[in-house]
Amino acid sequence: MAQVARKTNRNMVNLLLDGTIFVAFLASTAPRFTGLAIHEWLSIAFGAAIVTHLLLHWSWIVAVTKRFFGKAQWSARVNYVLNALLFVAFTVIIFTGLMISEVALPFIGIQLAGGHLWEQLHKLAADASVFLIGLHVALHWQWIVNMLKRIIVAPRWPRRAAQPTISNQQQEA
Ligand code: HEM
Ligand code: HEM
User: Fold this and answer.
1) Helix (H, G, I), strand (E, B), or coil: what is residue 162?
2) How many angstroms separate the CA atoms of 159 and 166, rounded?
């Protein structure tokens, strides 16, 4: 019972964090709408939130890394490759973003050279990330719908937690 409650809480934490990073991501893709200051600070916070997102799925990452060329399911391999591409895309976005920063880094006294190349790379990786995040969310759509149904349609949290979820993490466990 305690284990079920812990799993339920974990799913809830994941859902809240996933929802938050999704909204932050949408805002980050529209710097002309938010203004550059919000764009930069929000995106830096987003980077930190992604690290938390990865830490919360660390056991999945370790498990699939070990089994990738062995007996992992194909769905897990697809997710793994996509997640790796996401990691590369966001590393490039944040790095190039810092290179062209006009607000955040100058605020803490760091002035980098910037330049057109970093700017182009930043925009290219940002475009790619929209596509990759679309796929990432689509692949976890069933989990998202199940979680929302639990909260909105049958909000008897955590007693209903004994029902199985379709979390990819669990499938792979
Ligand atoms: C807008 C940004 C993102 C959203 C909304 C999002 C959403 C989700 C959702 C809904 C799940 C499954 C449910 C869960 O257990 O939390 C998940 C799992 C996962 N995400 Fe993300 N994610 C985002 C960005 C990223 C990025 C940038 C990476 C990699 C750098 C990443 C790596 C993972 C991993 C490793 C898992 C667990 C394994 C899997 O099932 O694929 N996510 N994410
Ligand atoms: C999730 C992370 C991020 C996304 C999705 C993102 C996305 C974008 C996009 C789409 C643009 C181009 C807007 C246009 O066409 O005018 C842009 C511009 C810019 N971004 Fe980011 N960005 C992110 C993170 C960052 C970070 C961390 C920084 C710096 C701390 C940063 C600094 C900038 C700057 C200075 C520009 C203006 C470039 C120019 O003069 O056109 N970005 N970003």
Assistant:
1) helix
2) 17
Q: Is residue 66 part of a domain?
A: yes
Q: Could you tell me if residue 173 is inside a domain?
A: no
Cα 51 to chain centroid distance, Å, stands at 8
Per-residue pLDDT of the chain in tens (173 residues, 90 and over written 9): 567 777 778 899 999 999 999 999 999 999 999 999 999 999 999 999 999 999 999 999 999 999 999 989 999 999 999 999 999 999 999 999 999 999 999 999 998 988 999 999 999 999 999 999 999 999 999 999 999 998 887 766 555 555 554 445 554 44
Q: What is the pTM of this model?
A: 0.88
Asked whether residue 11 is assigned to any structural domain, the reply reads: yes
- Taking the centre of ligand 1 as the mean of its atom positions, its distance from the CA of residue 110, in whole angstroms, is 32
Q: Among all ligands shown, which has an atom nearest to the Cα of 75? A: 1
Which residues constitute the domain of residue 116? 2-168
Domain tally, the chain: 1
Largest separation between any pair of C-alpha atoms in the chain: 57
The ligand minimizing its distance to the Cα of 129 is 2
